[in-house]
From TrEMBL:
Belongs to the cation diffusion facilitator (CDF) transporter (TC 2.A.4) family. Residues 16-210 form the Cation efflux protein transmembrane domain. The chain crosses the membrane at residues 12-35, 41-62, 83-104, 116-137, 158-176, 182-203. It comes from the Bacteria. It is found in: Membrane. This is Cobalt-zinc-cadmium resistance protein. The keyword Iron does not apply. SUPFAM superfamilies: Cation efflux protein cytoplasmic domain-like, Cation efflux protein transmembrane domain-like. It comes from Halalkalibacter wakoensis JCM 9140. Keywords: Membrane, Transmembrane, Transmembrane helix, Transport. Residues 219-295 form the Cation efflux protein cytoplasmic domain. The keyword Metal-binding does not apply. Its main location: membrane.
Length: 300
């Protein structure tokens, strides 16, 4: 089995873990949230439900990214993961807005004190979500899956939102027992705070995904070893230009190398072929486009 196949299987499995886990959590939190009259827990359930959609989008994006190059996509479909990450970020923002709107409206309605059972549901959610975040984050980092990394942070946002819900629900319950009216609104305040956290994370993840989707090239310090590898090929006198473009989880290199002007076209082609073969040995390099230039000595 190739490294690409292993990567696809691992990332696909992680996406399914997210889908199944989030469906279970969303149902538990929604049912208990309604039973316990907790607006914050219901908002948290909606957040988990959005995670299901996010994981499905990741699954589709990863599958599309694995497709081989074709006539319309000669560089492959690696950016499908970036597109999937952008969609997940947009979904996060929409969910955050809906939760914020509900929280705002709740301040103008009669508020009921949530039941204690809501606290247990939130604690359970925090533990499960943190485990899912760590699992997906490590896997996404290992296999350079932007979509999986975004989905992992989606889970981490759920941890933050659940923690905020925990504080809000606790404050509302305490306010009900001590007859402190303003504390009863802790549940609604927590819901609004959850919305702000979700919106902030959506903006950060979306910004990074869009940046990567726009033919981002690796920085100078990230290409040092690649340049050394190309320069080590016999016959290469200088590297005139070197661009390493991120295309999803892999890299495509455009390189211009200078060779002795007096050699034949065939000899120049052979040197270019060796440069390509050498660079393809580098990790995550998917394709190399080599242009041969005649070497010109720099005048003093």
């Amino acid at each position: 089995m190739s490294e690409e196949d292993v990567r696809y299987r691992k990332v696909r499995f992680a996406a399914w873990v997210g889908i199944i886990g989030n469906i279970i959590l969303a149902i538990i939190k929604a049912v208990i949230g309604v039973m316990a009259n907790s607006r914050a827990l219901v908002a948290d359930a909606v957040h988990s439900a959005s995670d299901v959609v996010g994981s499905v989008v990741v699954l589709i994006g990863v599958r599309a990214a694995k497709l081989p190059p074709d006539r319309d996509h000669p560089y492959g479909h690696g950016k499908a993961e970036s597109v999937a990450a952008i969609i997940v970020a947009v979904l996060l923002f929409i969910v955050g807005f809906e939760i914020a709107l509900g929280a705002f409206q709740s301040f103008f309605e009669p508020v009921e004190v949530p039941g204690v059972i809501a606290i247990y549901a939130v604690i359970f959610s925090i533990v499960v979500k943190e485990l899912m975040f760590r699992y997906k984050y490590q896997l996404g980092k290992k296999y350079k899956s932007e979509a999986l990394m975004t989905d992992a942070w989606h889970h981490r946002s759920d941890v933050f939102s659940s923690f905020a819900a925990l504080i809000g629900i606790g404050a509302a319950i305490l306010g009900g027992h001590l007859n402190i009216s303003w504390l009863v609104y802790g549940d609604s305040i927590a819901s609004a705070f959850v919305a702000i956290l979700i919106g902030k994370m959506a903006w950060s993840l979306g910004k990074q995904s869009i940046h990567n989707a726009l033919d981002h090239v690796l920085h100078e310090e990230d290409t040092v070893e690649m340049k050394k590898a190309a320069a080590s090929v016999e016959g290469v006198l200088n590297i005139d230009e070197f661009l390493a473009r991120e295309h999803g989880h892999y890299v495509i290199i455009d390189i211009k190398v200078a060779v002795e002007p007096s050699i034949s076209v065939e000899e120049g082609h052979t040197i270019g072929k060796r440069v390509k073969e050498r660079l393809l040995e580098e990790k995550n390099v998917h394709d190399v486009l080599v242009h041969i230039n005649p070497y010109k000595k720099k005048s003093n």
